[in-house]
Amino acid sequence: AATGPAPHLKRAGGTATVKTMLLEWCRARTRGYQNVDVQNFSGSWGSGLAFCALLHSFFPDTFDYGSLDPGARRHNFALAFATAEERAGCAQLLEVEDMVRLPVPDAKCVYTYLQELYRCLVAKGLVKTKKR
Predict the structure, then answer these.
(1) Start-to-end CA span in the chain (Å)
(2) Could you tell me the keywords of this UniProt record (predicted)?
């Protein structure tokens, strides 16, 4: 059986396949959100809006996505991480200050956080996975 932060993403093919699947899942969940274009685990997440869009796609009643400003990075990260913790039970593995200090987020940190968020959403029954 698969173990680790996102066991439901585990498929034959190793880490690269899991990363690709997680990136595709993020892209699909955020498609159509203004100012969001998920292409990678670093620069695509720099404004905080991709995190907000991903969470808004699951919890649309939590905040008004349309009112968010791409330049308000600190606010966007804080909103996303608080929403993930409160609504999905996802540990805040990323610090808002670290995200704001870096012009481009660290890809490994973003990837790890998104794995944990995915795992939490699966645990809450909000993401359906194939039974094996």
Answers:
(1) 10
(2) Coiled coil, Phosphoprotein
pLDDT tens digits, 27-53: 999 999 999 999 999 999 999 999 999
Q: What is the distance between the alpha carbons of residues 106 and 8, in angstroms, rounded to a whole number?
A: 24
Helix (H, G, I), strand (E, B) or coil at 42: coil
Is 98 part of any domain? yes
Range of the domain at 117: 15-124
CATH classification of the domain holding 48? 1.10.418.10
Q: Copy the structure tokens of residue 57.
A: 């796609």
3-state SS, residue 66: helix
* Residue 97: strand, helix, or coil: helix
